[in-house]
Design brief:
Length: about 190
């Protein structure tokens, strides 16, 4: 971040006043507001990038992202992701004769031997398991287990397009917001 200062006319006197006005408390409050506003804008862009990278819906990624806002005492904004290996049902899963078709990481593929319904084709019936995808773990009818996608949101947040979006948007927005709040606090002397 760069701060540019241009002094004209009685600018030096006004600058002295601005420094007094700022003080430590007002400056920290301004930085806190700037961090939180930049964080909010960055969270939106990061959530969209994460949805595209993982193949999830934006609504789902929005629920998985948590923000810890900055306070005057701790000038730090954190964006964290939660969740483990996500079930295939969240990736547009649909049953075909060969298995279930789903699109984790935005690439549709068929998972051989998996199923969502019971009975013989074409008259398959819902088995009452909430749309989850299952596979058999032995040659009999039971036991079965849920099939996971391999998408883990915290791991995906720190790589690829999502990490790049967070860094790029975050630094740009933070510069803008700090300049805006310094200008507001000093009544236009710093801009």
């Amino acid at each position: 971040m760069a701060l540019r200062l241009t002094i004209r006319g009685n600018g030096l006197e006004r600058f002295d006043e601005a420094v007094e006005i700022l003080g430590e408390n007002k400056a920290r409050n301004g930085y806190r507001r700037a961090l939180n506003e930049a964080g909010r804008d960055t969270k939106t862009a990061t959530g969209r990038a994460l949805a595209k990278q993982t193949g999830l819906k934006v609504k789902t990624t929005r629920k998985a992202l948590r923000e810890s806002k900055a306070s005057s005492g701790t000038l730090e904004y954190k964006l964290t992701g939660s969740g483990g290996d996500i079930s295939l049902k969240h990736f547009g899963a649909r049953e075909t004769r060969g298995g279930v078709s789903a699109a984790p990481f935005g690439r549709r593929e068929v998972y051989d031997g998996t199923f969502m319904k019971g009975g013989k084709f074409p008259n398959r019936k819902d088995i009452g398991k909430g749309g989850h995808v299952f596979e058999r773990t032995s040659f009999g009818r039971l036991p079965i287990r849920k099939v996971k996608s391999g998408v883990i949101i915290p791991r995906e947040m720190v790589k690829g397009t999502t990490a790049e979006t967070f860094q790029r948007i975050g630094s740009t927005k933070l510069d803008e917001k700090i300049a805006k709040h310094l200008k507001l606090i000093t009544k236009g002397v710093l801009s």
